[in-house]
Amino acid sequence: MMRMNIRRSTDATRHSGESRNLERQTPGPVARDPGFRRGDERELRGDERELRGDGRKCWSGEKKRWIDGNAFRHRVRAFLLACMALLAFALPARAVEVHEVKTPKGITVWFVEDHTVPIVAMNYAFYGGAAHDPADKLGLANFLSAMLDEGAGDMPSAAFQERMEELAMSMSHSAGKEWFAGSFRALKKHAAESFRLLALAVNAPRFDEQPIERMRRQLIAAIRSKSQDPDHLAWRAFRKMLFGDHPYARDAEGTEEGIKAVTRADLQGLHKRLFAREQLLVTVAGAISEKEMVRFVDEVFGALPEKSGMAPIPAPEMPAKGRQQVITRPMPQTIVLMGHEGLLRSDPDFIPAYVVNHILGGGGFGSRLTEVVREKNGLAYSVYSAMFSYRNAGVFFAQASTRNEQAVRALELMVREIKRMKEKGVTAKELEEAKKYLIGSWPLRFDSTTKIASILLGFRQQGLGVDYLAKRNDLMRAVTLEQANRAAKRLLKPEALQIVLYGSPKLPASATKPAGATAGAAAAPQEEKVKEPALAR
Amino acid sequence: MRAFPAGSGGKPSASPTSALTLLLFALAFILAFMAPALALDVKLHHFRLDNGLEVVVIEDHRAPVVTHMVWYRVGAADEPAGKTGLAHFLEHLMFKGTKKIAPGEFSKIIKRHGGEDNAFTSRDYTAYYQRIAKEHLGMVMAMEADRMQNLQLSERDVKTELEVIKEERRERTENDPRALFGERLVAAHFVAHPYRRPVVGWMADVQRLTLADVMAFYRRHYTPANAILVVVGDVTAEEVKKLAKEHYGRLKNTVEVKPRWRTPEPPPLTARRLKMHDARVRLPVFQRLYVAPSYRTAKGNEAHALDVFAEALGGGTTSVLYRRLIVEEKLAAYVGAWYSGDDRDHGTFGIYAAPAPGVEPEKLEARIDAVLREVLVNGIDEKRLKRTKTALVSSAIYALDSQFMLARIFGSALATDNTIESVLQWDERIEKVTAKDILSAARAVIKPANSTTGWLLPAPAPKTAAQGARK
Fold first, then answer.
1. For A63, which of B168, B280, B316 is closest by C-beta distance?
2. CATH architecture under which domain A323-451+463-529 falls
């Protein structure tokens, strides 16, 4: 009881991914703790859904740690801070305030001071990730993320990790598509020493030969262990359909060949290019004063070079014409995955579109997809839709897993709901209820120190200003029926759906007839049957 | 990955309870702990209503929200023979409505009030929760109290939801060779105890579950005296007491709660061994389970010693197994050990590993056993012991950061018939574990006859692993 293994005790839950209605959604590489425990797999399935939300996989040594992510809130209260600061935003009922603080070294930090629990949490991200990996070294950024706690300064790997354990601190790094993220947790009583250890890892990683080879073996094992994972493979095929050869199509963890090709010099080179102050985002929450925080942040990041060597990823060209791919695998279920180009986070219609998606399939029970596919027809345990965006591409998708005999029916129902939403829009009642939930549930996302730090980082990665916290609920409240329905028309493109059926779906007798075509008048997706796709290794 | 320890240490002491409270709750059993924790004072209040409903309140004033949970002392291990999956099926159906709440409306009402809800089922318990703005606490209590006794189901609800459950089983178990393997491993591991059942149930049983089964199970187990209410959040114990009394206090017990009986494991005589092939597997996986005491059944600090032992042996990159088999001998891609003492009747000690590319599974297993033998002779050295205990004790501080986790820790302790005190004293007792305690606890558990060993290997796969695919 005491050492609650959270993942175990929820052996079966009613629905997965309850709070996946995040404003930023990135399909995280579906990483797994390589050594599963009883029930882990099930639980992780649930987590993935939520965590796909911000896609920040945190990898620490042989362990993978996940950080949950979400969002923040309201009411403006301008502050002038002693050294350099800008604004602070507070929750109405709370004394919790988010300050935007600039350190003497010029690093901007979003900061929340809260002494309830004696811990300090910091999240940070450098622009640059798997999408920047050289084509012959796919997995380089992932490799680097595994090396930062493997020895730094004059401490070799073992000494470094023993010291972390003595301090009861943690640091974990992860390479997403275009962000390299870090998560740091320390006890208040060991804050100074813990930050010092992190500074060492960030500024002077050793890249010793032994740990490099050890991590190489582990990274390859991790890639192999999920190389037959249905969800992972369905997503890989789906990204390929959406992005073609564009780097956004890549698996963030890289390929076995890529990992094999990475050298010590590659890791050192990437570390140099990537770790720069220019495109660094930092958020801190917890039991620490602003004065101390500023000093520690500068100790960790202040000595890094100003200029980053990471260029923005160009926008991909996404298909306007629908296609369908059937990947046949002996499985009791078929994964039905579909989607198309979505909106960028910076799009003025993003918030109305977000509300529309919530009604369509983002809101769990009560959302149209769940009601039709699960509640009325019992076709799936999980069915949902979501939006996420990279810096230069937005994606809308919907997913379900259903028994093979009913896969086509589930697909048709989903496509029909997407079409109906585009054509008829939402009702005033639906809009009202969605807004009530989205506004009312906002504070739930900020009930812990570690959540706050990671949520704030997510906002920064999305390019939002600290004033968003104050405006967010007003933006939601202001969405009109007209705006929502216009956003639905813009967001949804049934004729452009890229559809993957992964499993052993029972297809209609006339195999030439695309499964999605029966649902309505809009142009039907073209079928592209792939028996043994080259995509799956 | 690190498990989440619970609680704050320190000695529980009775908190001053006002005369008014005593008056109001004259018949309620009031126990309040103000734990001078290592890290944080958990303001925990623990009492019982007249009808036997146990209540735990923890104050956390960081955000204007509450986590409200109701736990029932009934899980998969309490299902009648031939009805596996019933506890979990009922959990799903609890959202279908009552006289007052229309089918499917429960979660929608919660959502309209800006809340989130869900539920989960384990071997030992079933729990329902809402996270919501604090002003709606009374409303969610009214709804939860209502469905504790007034569930109303139609044949149609049951039929549709049965399909959902079957999809859940396919999605989470049958689609995934490692989950299937885990299920079979556990089924082989427990010879007689119902922990051998998967919580989601065996497909053949699940398909036959009926409305009558569900209602009989519901009536037998869902009653105030068999339930625990946990509220954590921006509330005071007084407010919660008042609301709990108003909403739950008037419920009457309709059945007598009988002590739980599950066939215990017979004395271990035979090591179990499994080998499963699956075409979807590329990396072989090793799993070893040992039957162990649980926190509830352990004598002295056996369970605490096993927690420390698991962490020192295989808890992370500084652990014995990691250092030996990954760093030094380069035989494993990953390796680790764990102990779970959270279940009511039996704990489990486990070891998992995967061979490094090119390493034969047999070789890795032989080396794991060799390292184990060595550790069982030499024990854990003092320096490592100290480091490990620091890590474990500190993880209790991190656990305090999550309202949901706190609610879950105390709820599951009570739902597995353990005590609040045992949670609150956890870190203190971890601190006291000695190298000698570890040796005697570990030697009692790490024995071949106590164990089940499994290998999940790549093809040849004679059939696809998923039997449930066929109707």
1. B316
2. 2-Layer Sandwich (3.30)
